[in-house]
Write a structure and sequence with these properties.
There is one protein chain. Helix content is about 5%, strand content about 65%. It is mainly beta. Among the domains are: about 100 residues, no CATH class; about 90 residues. β9 and β10 form a beta hairpin. The chain is elongated, with a radius of gyration of 37 Å.
Length: about 675
């Protein structure tokens, strides 16, 4: 009830208690005499209270008329209006003027309304809904409240922007929306400001911050050779632990593509993701297929395994269609799978590995495919003063050209270490490898080959630390080792198992570490070895590496050949933040392979709303600019945009000129976005 100082009349009533009408009417007359009126009723919970500045009751129609600061309270729900009529028989209310309907989930504003206090249903005119959790704003000429969270809107407008003039909205002839679930719009038009951008006769989308079935925001683009580009993703929330995305790609000059991705998680550390894509290039009259599939089940006690499959029908697929630089410059595409059965101190495994060479013209690859390999591994375990370990495997290798065949490899090792200030570590390995070969005649191998060998290694290492002050500490870690492999038989090269070489090698290394109060700030390592079996070139290249973590990370390594008096390899990378910029530089030099690449990147962050990045990959050995990309991201309260510009170099093999591609992705808050894979 209102304070008597303001002389406001108030009504307190319960919606469905008509039996007390006579008592209420008497109470109303009594309150008028006291310049304060009230109506109160008992019925089902929750009770409803109405307060206003003035009150009038019409007995013949059982209608109350409340005017001035009308407030209706019903549990956690309130309704405010300038004036209101209440039908006592039907529990209908007719608020008018600045109507506000406020619940825990939504705020609904309207010019006027027709609403039933019992059923909680009604119609609001020239109204707007604001969803408190999902941040949706839905306005319309008429909004019909059909259920607790279900609304039907005529001449609807949907947005998540807070501005009176939203940056974007979806307008439609009618809309059916369930707050926290989805919306359906008929004759839908997507507007940027007041400009209509896209039209569809029917639109289904999520109306929530959590995942939900519906259309995701599209991706637009343009390439010089393929024309304009449009991608439309559709998200399917199958269940709490699984979902899927379907996409359609369209290039005006090139053709149409379709793709689907399925994702899931399950109890027992099981998860997976599977992607299948097809594109029909109408210009080249060629079909491209891509398959990506990952699945894993991790277990410490029982059977566990994984697979990671990456397959392409054409090796130039990524160079032709990918939006991502890492895919365009990738040389190999690897697929692997493994099943593992662990025991107390060992494991049994079955694995396969398949590698696709993405270089043009590499249909007949010399890469060895491991299809499959069965292995047994014994983890290091104590055997008196010694430590025993073993690896063993039976492998089948296949390839398009070159030697293929089967290999059985058994490699047990014994290790022993002792010492305190100077630690002596030594190990002895015995290796037996047997081959059954096919396609071996051209390389001079018999169909049956075996190799037995042993290797011995002993290393002495220590650490000396000198603390000069609270702010400076110097650490030196010297190491001296000897490796002996007395003989090696010539066998075909399948993997690292065959990389052992005959040697009697003394190796030396020295690591320097400088530390201050914050920790290590410089690490420099130098290493070299001397092989007495290599009479012409016994010294290995001198290797130097350095790492500086502060004030910005710098890594570098190089190798110097004494006999050619040349640097054989140089690799370096540095990242430098400077105010709003971030600079990165990488260098890859290999003198024996005659390659020299530079990776250059510049990032700029203007604010949390705007950032940009440029990346360049340059081949200084004649290839020139191999790849370059520009990415800009812009984010506002209710929307965001990502612009990607890629430049592909000329394709000399297929006689294609350089090409510039532009892609634009819009992120609309509440509608979801799709990160394009290609």
């Amino acid at each position: 009830m209102q304070d008597t100082a303001y002389k406001k009349k108030s009504i307190m009533y319960h919606v469905s208690c008509i039996m007390y009408h006579s008592f209420l009417f008497f109470l109303l007359l009594f309150s008028v005499c006291c310049l304060q009126s009230a109506v109160y009723c008992f019925a089902e919970e929750p009770p409803t209270f109405i307060t206003s500045d003035s009150l009038k009751y019409e007995k013949s129609t059982s209608m109350y008329t409340a005017k001035g600061s009308v407030l209706v309270e019903q549990g956690e729900t309130i309704m405010i209006a300038n004036e209101m009529q209440y039908d006592e028989k039907t529990s209908n209310v007719f608020p008018e003027g600045n109507v506000i309907f406020d619940t825990p989930d939504i705020i609904l504003k309207a010019e006027k309304a027709e609403f039933n206090l019992n059923t909680k249903k009604g119609t609001f005119y020239n109204a707007e809904i604001f969803s408190k959790k999902e941040k949706f704003r839905v306005s319309g000429e008429e909004i019909e409240k059909k259920g607790e969270k279900e609304y039907f809107i005529k001449k609807a407008s949907i947005t998540t922007c807070e501005n009176p003039s939203p940056e974007w909205c979806i307008k439609g002839r009618t809309a059916d929306i369930i707050i926290g679930d989805r919306f359906k719009v008929r004759d839908a038009t997507f507007h940027v400001k007041d400009f209509p951008f896209l039209y569809t006769p029917y639109l289904l989308g999520p109306a929530l911050t959590e995942r939900k079935t519906g259309l995701l925001t599209p991706v637009f683009g343009h390439t010089q050779s393929k024309g304009f580009y449009y991608r439309q993703p559709f998200f399917w929330a199958i269940d709490e632990d699984k979902d899927a995305t379907f996409i359609v790609d369209w290039y005006t000059k090139a053709g149409l593509g379709e793709g689907a991705e399925y994702r899931y998680v399950a109890p027992g550390n099981v998860e997976g993701k599977h992607w299948l894509y097809h594109f029909r290039d109408k210009k080249a009259e060629l079909d491209f297929y891509e398959l990506k599939s990952t699945h894993s089940k991790r277990s410490k006690d029982g059977l566990s395994g994984y697979w990671n499959i990456n397959l392409l029908s054409e090796e130039n697929f990524y160079r032709e269609f990918s939006m991502h630089r890492d895919e365009r410059v990738n040389r190999f595409l690897e697929s692997t799978g493994e099943l593992t059965l662990p025991s107390d101190n060992s494991r049994l495994y079955l694995m396969s590995q398949y590698i696709i060479d993405l270089k043009d013209g590499s249909h007949n690859s010399a890469v060895a495919q491991r299809l499959p390999e069965l292995g047994y591994v014994v983890n290091p375990s104590s055997a008196g003063p010694l430590v025993f370990s073993m690896t063993s495997s039976a492998s089948n290798f296949a390839r398009d050209k070159g030697v293929s065949g089967q290999r059985l490899d058994i490699y047990p090792k014994l290790s022993h270490s002792f010492g305190d200030r100077v630690i002596i570590f030594q190990n002895l390995g015995l290796r037996e490898t047997v081959y059954s070969l096919q396609d071996n005649a051209d390389e001079g191998f018999k169909s049956s080959v075996h190799r037995d060998m042993f290797d011995y290694n002993i290393t002495a290492s220590s650490r000396f630390i000198k603390k000069y002050s609270e702010n400076f500490t110097h650490g030196i870690e010297p190491s001296l080792g000897y490796t002996f492999v007395p003989w090696i038989k010539n066998v075909p090269l399948f993997d690292s198992t065959e990389l052992s070489t005959k040697q009697s090698t003394i190796g030396m290394s020295l690591t320097n570490r400088l530390l201050d109060k914050k920790g290590e700030f410089l690490t420099v390592s130098v290493s070299e070895s001397y092989n007495t079996y290599e009479r012409d070139v016994p010294l290995s290249p001198l290797s130097v590496s350095a790492y500086i973590p502060r004030p910005f990370p710098v890594t570098a390594d190089a190798s110097y050949n004494h006999y050619t008096d040349r640097m054989e390899t140089i690799n370096s990378s540095v990242s430098i933040p400077f105010k709003k910029f971030a600079f990165s530089f990488g260098e890859r030099y290999n003198q024996p392979n005659n390659t020299m690449f530079y990776d250059i990147g510049v990032g700029y962050t203007h604010s949390k709303n705007l950032s940009a990045e440029v990346k360049l990959w340059y081949d200084s050995k004649g290839g020139g600019m191999r790849d370059s990309s520009f990415i800009m991201k812009y984010l506002q309260q209710c929307w965001g945009m990502t612009i990607m510009v890629n430049r592909k170099p000329p394709d000399e093999v297929n006689n294609k000129p350089s090409e510039i591609s532009v892609f634009v992705t819009f992120d609309l808050l509440g509608l979801g976005s799709y990160s394009a894979r290609k």
